[in-house]
Amino acid sequence: MEKSKILKEIVESIRSIFPKSYTDEEIEEDVLQEILNSAIFAPNHKKTKPWRLKVFRKEEKDQLGKKLAEIYKSTVAPQNFLEKKYQDISDKISKTDTIVTISVNFSGLVPEWEEIAATAMAVQNMYLTSTANNIGCYWSTPGMMNHLGEFLGLEENQRCYGLFYLGNLQYL
């Protein structure tokens, strides 16, 4: 099959696939590395490579889940707190093999929107590579991400723009 047909098939297959559709099977390390490496090929002005990706698996992933639940509990008004939502945070994390936090490093060399756009292109590359490898994924942008800076060790010129969930699929 020629490259353009293969690419067309992959692009038309991209979907946000959520943790309820993931299996307990671990993503193979070489497949995960291929997904992460695809991000570095995203176009970016002045070669700033503004995306900052941090991978969470196993115990680190569980710590991230606890932190997100803690953030939810501490930032939502008591009258708006939903126990189900609180529990769902940990449940969704537990059903996910890998979570990658997506942050942007603002270099000051180009307009901020260009750094955000380049990061989005890096994530699109991860979507394409995940789809090509039959790995379910989606980019989540919960409000809690705005409170992850210290937990992630972000610098003053960096900001978290979401979580990228990854898992093997129950179906192919």
Automatic annotation (TrEMBL):
Q: Which Gene3D superfamilies match?
A: NADH Oxidase
Q: Which cofactor does the UniProt annotation name?
A: FMN
Keyword presence, tRNA-binding: no
Give all residue intervals belonging to the Nitroreductase domain: 15-167
* MF terms (GO), sorted A to Z: oxidoreductase activity
Q: Which UniProt keywords apply?
A: Flavoprotein, FMN, NAD, NADP, Oxidoreductase
Xref: CDD domains:
YdjA-like (cd02135)
**Its family?**
Belongs to the nitroreductase family.
> What is the official name of this protein in its record?
Nitroreductase
